[in-house]
C-alpha cells in the first residue's frame, strides 16, 4: 500500500517514470497494489493517473474504497456523515478554540468543487462559497479545518463527537470523517476481501493521516521527508519523495 502526495508524488506534482516502472514490476509479480490517499472521490481520475498500476484505491482518507480489477470500478465502501453533526460540532469547537473556517467535501463527481466559507484554500481545487446552513443540510464525505499546527494537535486530542471522527491529517489541517474512517479501516476492506493478513502488508507514507495505516500494517516504510511521527513509527526509511524513495526501495526489494 502506498500513500500518494508527499510519498510517491513529488513536490512539483508529478510521479516519475521510475516510480511507475517500479510499481509495474510489483503488479507483474502478482502482488496487489493499493493506493491510499486523503484525496476524495472527486479526485479519483487524478489519483488513478498518479498510480495507474493500482488494483484498489482507498480514497477520502478511508471513506471510499474502489476495486479496479474489473472492467468498471466497483465501490466497496462509501461512508459519509450527516451535515447536522457539524451543526452540533462547530459551536462546541468554537466555544473552546475560537472562530474556525469550515470547508467540506459534499460532492463526488469528478473535479466537483469543495464547499467553503472562504476562498483561501492552499491547493488548486475549485471552491464554491456556501453557507454553513447549506453544508449542514447534506451528507458529508469529509470536513476540513485549516488551523495553526499546535491548535490542530490540541483540537484533535480534545474534541469528541459521537457521529464523527476528528484527525489531524497533517500540521495545519484537521479533517472530520464519518466514525471509524481512517486509512487502516479502508485498507481492511481490501485485505478482508483478498484474505490477506495486515501483518503481510507493506505500507509507504509521509504524513499524520498515515499514522493509522502505519499502526495497522506489518511493515512500515517512511520517506525521508515524512513527519517525525511517521519516522518514529517506521521500520525503515527510504529516500525522499523528490528522490523517488519508494521506487528506490522497491527496486532494492526486487533486485
UniProtKB/TrEMBL annotation:
Q: Does the keyword Hydrolase apply?
A: yes
Tree of life domain = Bacteria
Q: What class of enzyme is it?
A: hydrolase
GO molecular function list: hydrolase activity
Q: Which UniProt keywords apply?
A: Hydrolase
EC no. given is 3.1.3.-
Q: Report the Gene3D superfamilies cross-referenced here.
A: 3.30.1240.10, HAD superfamily/HAD-like
| PANTHER family reported for this sequence | HAD SUPERFAMILY HYDROLASE-LIKE, TYPE 3, PHOSPHOSERINE PHOSPHATASE
Q: Can you say what this protein is called? A: HAD family hydrolase
Q: Which organism is it from?
A: Hamadaea flava
